[in-house]
Amino acid sequence: MRILVADDHKLVRDGLRPFLRELDSEAEIIDAASLEEAVAAIEGAPRPDLVLLDLMMPGMTGLDGLTRIKTLAPGIPVVIVSGYSSRDHVQAAVQAGAAGFIPKTVGGNAMVNALRLVLSGETYLPSSSFFETTGSAPAAVRQTGAPPPFDRLSRREGEILAQLIEGRTNKEIAQALNLQEITIKVHLRNVYRKIGAANRAQAVRIALQSGWDIPPIAPSLPRPVG
C-alpha cells in the first residue's frame, strides 16, 4: 500500500507514520508539504492508494486542491485531515469528493479505525462536526443526549465503547476503568446487543458512522510494579 500524507507540518507527517503502519506494516508513506508536491506524487507512478490531505497547505485555496486531486485520480480515496471540522467544512469536503474528514484532535487509534472504514469503501464523518456550527444538536440528541440506538447505552457502556474505538483491548480497558476484565466482556455484550453489532469491528464501524458524540477517553492507570 502507498499512502500520501500531504501536510505542510513535518511534525504532523512524522507523527502519523506509526499509526499508518497499523494499516499496513509494509506501507510506503510519501510526504508532500504543498499542493504541488501532492499533485506531483499523484501524477507519478505508481500512484498512492490513499491520500491524507490538509486543507491549509501552501497552494490550497478552499477545496480547490481537493477538486484538483479528485480530477487527477477519481478512484483514489482522499481523506481530509484538518484542524477545522465545522459542519460546513465537513459537508463541503464530502460534496467535493472527500472519502472522509478526520479532525486533528482525534486520537491515533481512532484515526486508524476511521481510515480502515474508508478503505472498506465507507465514508467517515466526525461526530462532533454536527454540533460545532449550530451550537445545538439534532432533535433526537437534544432529547436523550445521544442518537438512537446510543441513547440506550449506560454511562459505563458508553465509556467502554469509546475505549474500544481507540483500539484498546479488554485488558487495557479494564485497567483504564479500574474494572475486572470479565466485567468489560459483560458490558461489551450489552453494547453489541443495544446497538445491533455482532462483534468489535462492527461496533466500531456503527459508532463511527452514527454521529454519536464519543465520550472523553479515560487515561490508563499506572501498571503495578513487581
UniProtKB/TrEMBL annotation:
Protein name: Putative two-component DNA-binding response regulator (LuxR family)
Domain Response regulatory span(s) in chain numbering: 2-119
Sorted UniProt keywords: DNA-binding, Phosphoprotein
Residues with PTM 4-aspartylphosphate: 54
Alphabetical list of InterPro entries matching this protein: CheY-like_superfamily, NreC/VraR/RcsB-like_REC, Sig_transdc_resp-reg_C-effctor, Sig_transdc_resp-reg_receiver, Tscrpt_reg_LuxR_C, WalR-like
Gene Ontology MF: a single term: DNA binding
Pfam families associated with the record: GerE (PF00196), Response_reg (PF00072)
Taxonomic source organism: Magnetospirillum molischianum DSM 120
Upper taxonomic lineage: Bacteria, Pseudomonadati, Pseudomonadota, Alphaproteobacteria, Rhodospirillales
